[in-house]
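Hey,
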Amino acid sequence: MRGEERERERGGNKGRERKKEGRRRGEKERGGTKGRERKKWRERKKWRGKRETGGERRREKEKEEKKGREVERRREIEEKKGGGREEKREREQGEEKKGREVDRWREGE
């Protein structure tokens, strides 16, 4: 008991206190560490951040691919229903021509 009081006065047990607390500085359950280990941990944290940005890029890429796939799927569905946009236009124009021809034929009679 007396030894601990003396240590507290000198400020010599700071390391041990930190070790007991451990999680105060965002560390998980590693306890207190020496400076070198702390430095390594900081480096690892830095790399972890960079990895996350890579993940974001990957997610964006996947989104774009998904959009592309969806557009293709829509096109396929349109084709199955009766052609794409161009074919629909052609069909409508053909119907207009037929209508004109019928009108001419009726006028001729």
